[in-house]
Amino acid sequence: MIIGKNIIAINLSKEMISLLFDLDYKIMEVKDCIEGIRHAIRFQPDLVIAEINSPNLNGLSMASILNKLRVRIPLILTGSDVKYKKPALSFNNVNGFLLNPGKDTGVSRDKVKSDLESIIFNFDNFELSSMEYAYSFRQHEWANLLGKSNNNRILIVEDDVSFLKLVLKRLDSQNAYDLYSAKDGLEGVFKAFLVKPHLILTDINMPNIDGLAMSQMFFILNKPYPIVFLTALEIGEIQPKMKKAHGVVGIMEKKVLGDKETFLKDFEKHLIEALIRQKEWKKQIEETSK
User: Domain of 245: which CATH number?
Assistant: First the structure.
């Protein structure tokens, strides 16, 4: 038996929680997978066990997000139907699937206990997990981070180098912002944690993590950074997708970059909205944490 391992238990049944305590694991219970992701990143447990049909965000979506963020924590999903086993095990960070004990599944407590121990003992490396962060800072970005500046911090996330250079050129001409950039959504997520931007200007269609997924991750991770989408798509194409986005304060079409004055005027309008929205979010978070 593996003694004293730290486990985050997400929306598990009373029978499953009781079984984990009997195995002498240190259990941290959380109500849903959004809180599970936040706790996994903060506390770095040895294992996460989650009910696949959790509220707000299901176990499969949680596995996908942890995988994209490269959070290397063993994950076991539980459920009341064997149909969930195949999709659960399709993720390379899901180490096993367990049917819940009880009359509904016809699985005994002893069977679940045996299966759980078997999964854990078959882990290749059951040690404290580690995360790989994907970001790199250029010299002027380090200077901005280390210096004292009253400028608003702007993070541009764009995989097209030519567009990225043009955006940086347009904004840098004002000499009014501290500018940072990322080549895709994954790097954008990690850079945002360090930079704490006042506004993120991002493309939508990008490799690794697209702009919509990035906005969702900031919400899930309780880091509400204001986002403006800068896209080659028509606004009519984007609006249906906006229902899945969080923290978005505006949309700009890439063609506006051809007119410097219009671009800067629109950008400043969105920045003002972003600063107002960020103050509101900060106040809400402070009130919630009281």
Answer: 3.40.50.2300
